[in-house]
Amino acid sequence: MTGSPSSMPSPAVLAARAARATAEPGDPADHPVTGQVGEILSEVAAIREAGDGEFSLAALARQAELLTRAHALLSETLEDAGRG
Question: What is the pLDDT, as a whole number, of residue 25?
Fold first, then answer.
Protein backbone atom coordinates (compact mmCIF):
# COMPACT_ATOMS: atom_id res chain seq x y z
CA MET A 1 0.00 0.00 0.00
CA THR A 2 1.28 3.45 -0.80
CA GLY A 3 0.58 6.51 1.27
CA SER A 4 0.55 6.95 4.97
CA PRO A 5 -2.46 5.95 7.09
CA SER A 6 -3.21 9.62 7.78
CA SER A 7 -3.60 10.34 4.05
CA MET A 8 -6.11 7.55 3.51
CA PRO A 9 -9.79 8.06 4.34
CA SER A 10 -11.12 6.21 7.34
CA PRO A 11 -13.60 3.37 6.90
CA ALA A 12 -16.34 5.67 8.23
CA VAL A 13 -15.57 8.29 5.58
CA LEU A 14 -15.58 5.62 2.86
CA ALA A 15 -18.91 4.26 4.13
CA ALA A 16 -20.44 7.75 4.19
CA ARG A 17 -19.28 8.40 0.63
CA ALA A 18 -20.75 5.10 -0.54
CA ALA A 19 -24.04 5.82 1.22
CA ARG A 20 -24.31 9.26 -0.42
CA ALA A 21 -23.45 7.85 -3.83
CA THR A 22 -26.09 5.12 -3.68
CA ALA A 23 -28.85 6.85 -1.69
CA GLU A 24 -32.13 7.83 -3.28
CA PRO A 25 -32.50 11.60 -3.59
CA GLY A 26 -34.74 13.14 -0.96
CA ASP A 27 -38.04 14.80 -1.71
CA PRO A 28 -37.39 18.52 -2.24
CA ALA A 29 -40.65 19.31 -0.44
CA ASP A 30 -39.12 17.88 2.74
CA HIS A 31 -36.18 20.30 2.73
CA PRO A 32 -36.45 23.11 5.32
CA VAL A 33 -35.70 25.78 2.72
CA THR A 34 -38.92 24.87 0.89
CA GLY A 35 -41.00 26.11 3.82
CA GLN A 36 -38.89 29.23 4.25
CA VAL A 37 -39.19 30.17 0.58
CA GLY A 38 -42.90 29.35 0.62
CA GLU A 39 -43.43 31.79 3.49
CA ILE A 40 -41.49 34.49 1.66
CA LEU A 41 -43.52 33.96 -1.52
CA SER A 42 -46.74 34.14 0.49
CA GLU A 43 -45.60 37.47 1.88
CA VAL A 44 -44.82 38.71 -1.65
CA ALA A 45 -48.30 37.66 -2.79
CA ALA A 46 -49.92 39.39 0.20
CA ILE A 47 -48.13 42.63 -0.66
CA ARG A 48 -49.33 42.36 -4.26
CA GLU A 49 -52.92 41.68 -3.19
CA ALA A 50 -52.90 44.53 -0.67
CA GLY A 51 -52.05 46.96 -3.46
CA ASP A 52 -55.50 46.63 -5.09
CA GLY A 53 -53.93 47.13 -8.52
CA GLU A 54 -52.35 50.44 -7.53
CA PHE A 55 -48.66 50.98 -8.25
CA SER A 56 -46.58 51.48 -5.12
CA LEU A 57 -42.85 51.94 -5.31
CA ALA A 58 -42.52 51.03 -1.62
CA ALA A 59 -44.47 47.78 -2.12
CA LEU A 60 -42.41 46.95 -5.19
CA ALA A 61 -39.19 47.57 -3.25
CA ARG A 62 -40.37 45.30 -0.42
CA GLN A 63 -41.28 42.55 -2.91
CA ALA A 64 -37.86 42.85 -4.55
CA GLU A 65 -36.19 42.60 -1.14
CA LEU A 66 -38.18 39.47 -0.27
CA LEU A 67 -37.52 37.84 -3.64
CA THR A 68 -33.82 38.58 -3.29
CA ARG A 69 -33.86 36.87 0.11
CA ALA A 70 -35.66 33.83 -1.36
CA HIS A 71 -33.11 33.68 -4.18
CA ALA A 72 -30.24 33.83 -1.69
CA LEU A 73 -31.72 30.99 0.37
CA LEU A 74 -32.18 28.81 -2.70
CA SER A 75 -28.70 29.60 -4.05
CA GLU A 76 -27.09 28.81 -0.69
CA THR A 77 -28.99 25.53 -0.50
CA LEU A 78 -27.91 24.54 -4.00
CA GLU A 79 -24.29 25.36 -3.19
CA ASP A 80 -24.50 23.25 -0.02
CA ALA A 81 -26.02 20.37 -2.00
CA GLY A 82 -23.15 20.58 -4.47
CA ARG A 83 -20.65 20.24 -1.64
CA GLY A 84 -22.37 17.16 -0.21
Answer: 75
